[in-house]
Amino acid sequence: MRILLIYHFFQPDPVISARLFAELAEELEHAGHRVTVFTGNRLIRSDEKLPPREEWNGVEIRRFSRPNFSQGSNVGRLFNSGILQLKWLCGFFRRRREFDAVLVGTDPQFAYLMFPLLRLMNRRIRLIHWAFDLYPEAILVNSPAWMKRLAALTKPFVPWAYRRVDAMVDIGECMRKRLQTYGHGAECATLTPWALAEPSEVPESDPDVRRELFGEAKIGLLYSGTVGYAHDLGPFIGLARECRRRGIDAAFCFAGYGNQYKVQLAQLTKEDTNIRLAGFASEAELERRLAAADIHLISLRRGWEGIVVPSKFFGALAIGRPVLFSGPEESCIARWIADEKLGCVLDDASEAALHFIRELGNKPEVLEQARNHAWRIYREKFSRTAVCSRWLRLLAER
C-alpha cells in the first residue's frame, strides 16, 4: 500500500509526537508499505531549516517551508498552520493519484479542515485521522478570548470535515466519546502512543540518580515532563505536605518544564522539605531518571479529559513503575489504572493515595510486584510492537 503521512513535525525533531510518527513510518515501511511524509521544514525548538527532500530508513520525507513564527504564540501558530496546510494541499494535488491512504495527525491546529479538500482531490483514497489531542476543544478550554471566538467559528465545520474520514483513531475511550459527538460515522480504533524508552526488562534504580532526586527518602515519587495548562501540580504538593505531616518518609521530585512549571511551583515554601526540583533530562539520561523513582505522578485537570492524554503514563509503565494519577475518575487513564491495577487515583480525601505510598514504601515485595506488573501490562497493551501491530491490522482491513 502507498501511504502518505501528514504531520507538522517529523524526524529528526525530538518532540514526542514527531518521534511517534517517525517510528510508525518505520514500522509501515518494514511491513512492505511505501511511505511518504509531508511535514514542515523547521524543528519545534530551533531556527534551523531542514532540507526540502530526504530519504530516511526507506521513507520519503518531503518538507514544506514555512516562516519562523513562534509556536509559543497563538498568532504565530495560526500563521504556521495556515501556510503549511495550503502547501500540503498543493503538494497532494500534484501527487493525488500516487497514494492509497492518507494519515493526518492533529498538529498543526485545524488540520481537520484539509479533509474535505483531500477527499475532493481523490475520492478513492482511504483517509485516516490520528487524534493526539482535539481541536478546537483544546483552544476552547484555555485560550485568550479572541482565540476562543475564532475556534468557536470553526466548530460548525468539524462534523462536515470529519464525515470525510474513513477511520478515526483516538488515543483513549474518553477522546473517542468526544469525537463521536460530531456524528462522523467513521470506523473507530483506539491506538495509544508508546514510550520512547522501552527497556527489555524492569530496570533497577541508579543509586546516584536516586540520591540526586530524592535524597535518602524511603520512597521517591517523580513528576517528569511538561507542565502546561492541562496539568495541575497542586494536588501533589498538598499530598507531599500531608506525607510530611504524618511522618511518611517520601520525597517528591518535580522534574518538569513548560509554560506553567514555574507558575505552579511558586506556592512552595521553605517548609516543603520533602519536595525537590530537577531540570530537563536529555534523552540519553531519561531512562535512568525515570527508573530512579518508585512511583510516577501523572496529572490532568478536570475538563481536559478526552482532549489530551498525558504521554507520561505510557513512559512510566514502560519503565516498570506504578503511577499515582491526579485527574477525573472518568478519564481513560483512571480507568486503565483501575482495570489493570496499575497504581492509584488521587481523590480529594487522599487517604487511598497515602495508603498506597506507605504500603509500597514499607513492603519491598509489594513494590517489586507492582513494578513487574506495570512493565508486563505495558508490553502486552501499550508497547510500540503491540500498537503498531494493530496499526497494520487497521490498514489491512481494506
Characterize the structure shown:
With 398 residues, the chain is of the alpha/beta class. It has two domains: 2-193 and 384-396, Rossmann fold (3-Layer(aba) Sandwich); 207-382, Rossmann fold (3-Layer(aba) Sandwich). It is 42% helix and 18% strand. The strands form two sheets. Strands 3-4-2-1-5-6-7-8 form an eight-stranded mixed sheet, with helices on both faces. It has a six-stranded parallel sheet with strand order 11-10-9-12-13-14, with helices on both faces. β13 (323-326), α13 (332-340) and β14 form a beta-alpha-beta unit. α12 (312-318) packs across α15 (364-382), α14 crosses α15 and α15 runs parallel beside α16. This is Glycosyltransferase family 4 protein.
Keywords:
398 residues; alpha/beta; Rossmann fold; 16 helices
What structural category arises from helix and sheet content? Answer: alpha/beta
How many domains is the backbone divided into?
2
Helical fraction: 40-55%
In whole angstroms, how far apart are the ends? Answer: 10 Å
Specify the CATH class of the largest domain: Alpha Beta
Low-confidence stretches: none
Write the layout of secondary structure elements.
Blueprint: E1 2-6, H1 16-30, E2 34-40, E3 53-56, E4 59-64, H2 74-94, E5 101-104, H3 115-121, E6 126-130, H4 137-141, H5 145-154, H6 157-162, E7 167-170, H7 173-180, E8 187-190, H8 207-214, E9 219-226, H9 234-246, E10 250-257, H10 261-265, E11 275-277, H11 283-292, E12 295-299, H12 312-318, E13 323-326, H13 332-340, E14 343-346, H14 351-362, H15 364-382, H16 384-396
Parallel strand pairs: 1-2, 1-5, 2-4, 5-6, 6-7, 7-8, 9-10, 9-12, 10-11, 12-13, 13-14
Antiparallel strand pairs: 3-4
Helix pairs in contact: 12-15, 14-15, 15-16
